[in-house]
Design a protein that fits this description.
- Helix content is 72%, strand content 0%.
- By secondary structure, it is mostly helical.
- It has one domain.
- Helix 3 runs antiparallel to helix 4 and helix 6 runs antiparallel to helix 7.
- The longest helix has 20 residues.
Length: 221
């Protein structure tokens, strides 16, 4: 019974619609009416800008961290034991479901990538840091949040299965499922990337301007 209550609580935490509340309170809009229509960090970067996009991403990540840490409220679980990790995975997934189908926002949320990352951060912080390294590198090179998210999610099972060789079978299955789920939920983004009309986030503008000036000067020469 305690586990069930925690899973419900994790869902409610995940249901906090950060992007919706921020867009309503500070911009007097519903972010789901703009951009991709998703109430997540990627669309927040696109519609609200990098400042509020970063804030939404941070809070959505913290939802995943908070959800898995609820497992510490049950004293008879041994930390890092198989049952403990399984409970953490269940709590984290419940928060991700809450983010995608938030009860506080008419069950219309985001894709759950930031909350999913927060979940991994709460369970396996080293692996999560490696994945965020992949995310930031791809984002720096391309400025596509969607592509960064997909490649980081693909890197996740690589880190779990190959590099760190995680022995827990459920966690290995979970890592593979995450990569497949992210690819499945990003079908529209993949289509836009292939067509060349995926939107880039408005960061690194100074770098782009320098590149344009260099190209312009080279043409003049």
């Amino acid at each position: 019974m305690n586990e069930l209550l925690l899973i419900v609580l994790a869902y409610l935490i995940g249901s906090i619609p950060t992007a919706v509340w921020v867009s309503n309170y500070f911009f007097d809009i519903d972010i789901r009416d703009y951009g991709s229509g998703n109430a997540g960090a990627t669309n927040s970067f696109r519609v609200l800008g990098p400042k509020w996009g970063s804030f939404v991403m941070l809070v959505d990540m913290l939802k995943g961290v908070a959800a898995v840490k609820l497992a510490l409220l049950i004293p008879y679980y041994i930390q890092f034991d198989t049952q403990f990790i399984n409970l953490q995975i269940g709590l984290g997934l419940s928060a991700v479901v809450g983010h995608i189908f938030p009860i506080w926002a008419d069950f219309r949320g985001g894709k759950g990538i930031a909350t999913l990352f927060g979940m991994v951060l709460g369970i396996q912080p080293i692996v999560a840091i490696c994945c965020v390294g992949v995310f930031l590198l791809v984002l720096y090179l391309t400025r596509f949040v969607s592509l960064s998210s997909m490649l980081a999610s693909i890197a996740f099972p690589v880190f779990i299965l190959v590099i760190f060789n995680e022995p827990e079978h459920l966690y290995r299955v979970f890592a593979i499922a995450v990569a497949l789920l992210v690819l499945l939920t990003h079908q529209k983004n993949i289509s836009r990337l292939l067509k060349g009309n995926e939107n880039k986030v408005p960061i690194l503008k100074h770098r782009d301007r320098r590149r344009q000036r260099r190209r312009g000067s080279s043409h003049v020469d």
